[in-house]
């Protein structure tokens, strides 16, 4: 049975979706013995030097990297100066009796040790485990978190709670599906 396609071989009736495929078929199958062409092997990818980046080779790349590093150092120095100015302004506001605005942690520091975002699933789980004090199953933790005010439309919330429990550093897995606060 011939395949569906708009390019049909006149010799055998086989049809192809692309003219190039028909041409390859004719040259490999129907060409005379001396004129047959073997199917082409896939070409290997040629590695090109750094010149293709437009940087002038490895030396040009090293120069660009050096420029970027120097610029980063300048920006870091400016940030340090701005941080000290902000601290001075906050101190002046405190002395004058005004509440200094809350400052965010410097970028890139992460939230290690700062706990979990208020209102998040992990924050509710942590609260539930600390108030309960004992060993709890994921299903019980989910029910207690919902009772404590966590709102979610997640139909597989128990599974999400189980995943969150396994990811939390301050939670120990006691058994299969059973956890406790460290």
Q: What this model shows, in words?
A:
With 182 residues, the protein is mainly α. The protein folds into three domains: 1-40, no CATH class; 52-95; 121-181, Orthogonal Bundle (Arc Repressor Mutant, subunit A), CATH 1.10.10. It contains five helices and five strands, in the order ββαααβααββ. It has helices at 19-30, 57-95, 121-132, 138-147, 157-167, and strands at 7-8, 15-16, 136-137, 171-175, 178-181. α3 packs across α4. The longest helix is centred in the middle third of the chain and has 39 residues, at 57-95. The protein is flat. The chain starts with 6 loop residues before the first strand and ends with a strand.
Compile the SSE list and pairings.
Layout: E1 7-8, E2 15-16, H1 19-30, H2 57-95, H3 121-132, E3 136-137, H4 138-147, H5 157-167, E4 171-175, E5 178-181
Antiparallel strand pairs: 1-2, 3-5, 4-5
Characteristics of this structure?
182 residues, Arc Repressor Mutant, subunit A, 3-stranded antiparallel sheet, 5 helices, 5 strands
Task: Provide the CATH architecture of the largest domain.
Answer: Orthogonal Bundle
Number of helices: 5
Strand order of the largest sheet: 3-5-4
Which shape, going by the Cα principal axes? flat
How far is it from the N-terminal to the C-terminal residue, by CA?
Answer: 68 Å
Low-pLDDT windows of residues:
none
Strand content: 5-15%
* Overall pLDDT level: 80
CATH domain fold name of the largest domain: Arc Repressor Mutant, subunit A
CATH hierarchy, class of the largest domain: Mainly Alpha
What class would the helix/strand composition place it in? mainly alpha
Task: Report helical residue fraction.
Answer: 40-55%
Number of strands: 5
Radius of gyration: 34 Å
> What is the string of SSEs from the N terminus onward?
EEHHHEHHEE
**Domains, number:** 3
Please summarize the sheet with the most strands: 3 strands, antiparallel
């Amino acid at each position: 049975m011939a395949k569906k396609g708009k390019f049909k071989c006149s010799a055998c009736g086989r049809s192809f979706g692309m003219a190039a495929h028909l041409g390859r078929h004719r040259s490999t199958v129907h060409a005379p013995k001396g004129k047959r062409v073997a199917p082409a092997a896939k070409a290997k990818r040629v590695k090109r030097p750094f010149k293709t980046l437009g940087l002038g080779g490895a030396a040009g790349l090293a120069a660009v990297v050096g420029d970027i590093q120097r610029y980063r150092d300048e920006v870091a120095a400016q940030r340090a100066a701005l941080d000290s100015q902000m601290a001075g302004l906050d101190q002046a506001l405190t002395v004058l009796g005004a509440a200094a605005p809350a400052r965010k942690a410097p970028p890139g520091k992460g939230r290690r040790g700062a706990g979990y975002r208020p209102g998040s699933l992990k924050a509710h789980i942590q609260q539930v485990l600390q108030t309960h004090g004992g060993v709890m199953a994921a299903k019980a933790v989910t029910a207690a978190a919902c009772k404590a005010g966590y709102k979610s439309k997640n139909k597989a919330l128990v599974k999400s709670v189980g995943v969150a429990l396994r990811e939390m550093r301050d939670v120990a897995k006691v058994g299969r599906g059973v956890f406790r606060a460290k």
